[in-house]
Fold this sequence. Notes:
The chain is of the alpha/beta class. The protein contains 10 helices and 14 strands. The chain has 2 domains: 2-171 and 222-250, NAD(P)-binding Rossmann-like Domain (Rossmann fold, 3-Layer(aba) Sandwich), CATH 3.40.50; 189-221 and 253-321, Alpha-Beta Complex (UDP-galactose 4-epimerase, domain 1), CATH 3.90.25.10. α1 (11-22) packs across α7 (225-238) and α4 runs parallel beside α5 (139-158). The model has no long low-confidence stretch (mean pLDDT 97). Residues 76, 78, 116-118, 140, 168-169, 187-189, 192, 205-207, 218, 220, 258, 281, 284, 288 line the site of uridine-5'-diphosphate-4-deoxy-4-fluoro-alpha-D-galactose (UFG).
Amino acid sequence: MHVLICGGAGYIGSHMVKLLAEQGYTVTIFDNLSTGHREAVKWGTLVQGDLLDIVALDALFKSNQFDAVMHFSAKSLVGESVEKPALYYLNNVIGSYNLLEQMRLHDVDKFVFSSTAATFGNPQTATIDEGHPQVPINPYGRTKLAVEYILGDYAQAYGLRSVSLRYFNAAGADPSGMIGESHDPETHLIPNVLKAVLGAGSNLRIFGDDYDTADGTCIRDYIHVNDLCEAHLLALKYMDKQDGAQAYNLGNGKGFSVLEVLNAAMSVVGKKIPYEIVERRPGDPATLVANSQLVTEQLNWKPVFTQIDEIISTAWNWHNNSTF
Ligand code: UFG
């Protein structure tokens, strides 16, 4: 089976490439390398190109017979999306549309889409299940929700099979240490904490300690990148027997505050990590925790990395020896 991985040189995409290659799939990676890394492509065949380049996409689909497509290519920073919505609508919506049109033209009918908890907006319940209203509060979330709508309509009209996976906070790295998270600039909590230990980033700042949570810092549901990738593999197999457009929330179902993450990191690295409390970061909801019962029931998905210190350990293993 030949799978096209758009964004396969990026953080989550590269872990997916590794898993599929290990499972015996043929993998082609299409990536413009704007945020991905050539060094992260250790399996499969890399085709450097952009989803906005229809000629390149057409050539890619003409020269390969893909059985399925996984789509990890996106702009994904909430703050940046508020400042540059045009960039987000162009990359995330038009890019996805171009890809889906090529699939339609070339009769490829299985699609796994990287969606996000940001499609829900401010939570109205303690944990967020698939029935929670989707009212995104930033352009990033709206671009991802727009693609979810497209997938629903394409399923109905053209029979496209799809699974949208709404990630909560992707974290950790493959335990092999061969690939991991590498963004520039880095905005995510766990890498920033670990870079502060290594003296590789700026000093650690915690964005607000006056939220309505037990310790005043934001609570998030951290999910290991390999567990996310397992869900993609299950989704791929599920579409063999299931048509329509499905969507699932992916998290561990347990929230950790920023200070709890910091404490767990201190015990993993065995050092005190200095930090300062600064202003709240615009657009951060106080709490985001998934209810992932549906994906457990329907896809038989079960996360392996359920402890925050295990997740941080794999990230530490990567950051301590990272090669890109
Ligand atoms: N935080 C800090 N200091 C930092 C970095 C983050 O205090 O240096 C805080 C944030 O304010 C937030 C928490 O740590 O409260 C987690 O922040 P991240 O940036 O790691 O992750 P987000 O929850 O903001 O965003 C992630 C993805 C988004 C996605 C969102 C959906 O990166 O793409 O989850 O839940 F939209």
